[in-house]
From TrEMBL:
Reactions catalysed: a 1-acyl-sn-glycero-3-phosphate + an acyl-CoA = a 1,2-diacyl-sn-glycero-3-phosphate + CoA
Enzyme class: transferase
Claim: Lipid metabolism is one of the keywords in the record: yes
Short name of any one Pfam family annotated for the protein: HAD
Family to which the UniProt record says this protein belongs: Belongs to the 1-acyl-sn-glycerol-3-phosphate acyltransferase family.
Protein known as: 1-acyl-sn-glycerol-3-phosphate acyltransferase
Amino acid sequence: MSALADAVAAIRSGPHGAEVAAVFDFGGTVVDELPRRGLVRRVFRRGDRRRATLLGGIRRGGDGDYGRFLQAVERTWAGVPGTELDDLGRSAFRRELAGRLFPEAWQLVREHQLAGHTVLLASELPGYAVRPVAELLGIEHVLCTEPATEDGVLTGHLDGPPLWRAGKAEAVRAFAASAGLEIGYVYTDSATDLPLLELAAAPVTVGPDPALATVAADRGWPTLEFRARRDPSPLDCLRTVAGFTALIAGALVGVLRKSYAGERQAMADALMHDATTATLRAIGVRLRVVGAEHTRAPRPAVFLFNHQSQFDVIIVPKVVGGPVTGIGKKELRNHPLFGPLMRFVGVTFLDRTDTARAKAALAPVVSTLREGLSIAVAPEGTRSYTRGLGPFKKGAFHIAIQAGVPVIPVVIRNAGEIAWRDSPIARPGIVDVAVLPPIDVSGWDPDDMDEQVEQVRRSYEHTLLNWPGEKDSAERLT
């Protein structure tokens, strides 16, 4: 078993309940540290001092570095409305931090939540940088260094002592005491958090700095190593350009290969096969599929996939194979690359802003299914920032009920690591996909299926946390 699997097993077999606190540090533990910006990026963002200050603390450093960070906060943010910094924090999250969330941290946070633990995110940074991540992870309790405000405007001073070294430990200790909590687990990467680690019944170091690694080895504390969240390299950009070129070339080859028959569906199927195969090969992505037999029968079916990456539109058709089309947002119809291809293979485009029109547009999809063509749908409706799942919309389930076909879940574990949520650049690697057994929805009540839809959603999360075929995917202990 891996160190991460050992940590998960310890959570599952350990004490459960809200009286147990699990404390996570932020930078270097939940999100990867930001690299030093290159000269070009500094020149183009020289005027964005508030943003630079917000992100500047998410780097490992000592007392001097943190002192300079606090001085920059006090100097740069004085007189700025807190609402403006809230907006800045959310923008910085979308543009800078979302792709740096550690998938391993998401899994640990979710395991603690499923164990009923009280999860805290504790950071020496201001809450403007931390709260968007906490909200995404469903972490209710956030302890941060907070700038003082007066009438909603920052004064240039701090509201209380900074959460640094013993200050962070004291804030966590005081919170736990006031809430009647036992500090069961602490996760952090820095020796500056040694006072905090010493409060925990089960301290865990995450990619520790050299000083903390020495302490962890001496005291026998477990150490986790999360994979670095690196920016795309120039070679990744070149591979992606090659991938898009391969997509067009593969599509043309597929159509020409079946054009002699004059059957549009045969050409569409060949287009899908050749285009996806060529694209994945060009960008260096391989698929590792569990449960592939469920894609072959029964057909037609509604294939549901969790949505993490723009490249899911390449991955899912390759996994599903055979006659299949999809449903997409109307904006994709005019996409210069994907638009013509999606129109050729019969994708239905929906206007999400007009519910009545969207429902009317689904009627032809039911006919398509009845004629033998499967569809692939993302029930979340949008891409997620983590492996976690958003709420499932019911449209795909209504379609399956009306067409009299089953629903087949397709669970994608790590496409978001190949290409971050809003990134057009892909990295090489292996994408894990699990296809679950078909679900018969013929007996579902279209007017009362909230619980069944939620059960399907939970099956995705269970699969993500207990990946089939892995030694560390044992059933959850109760």
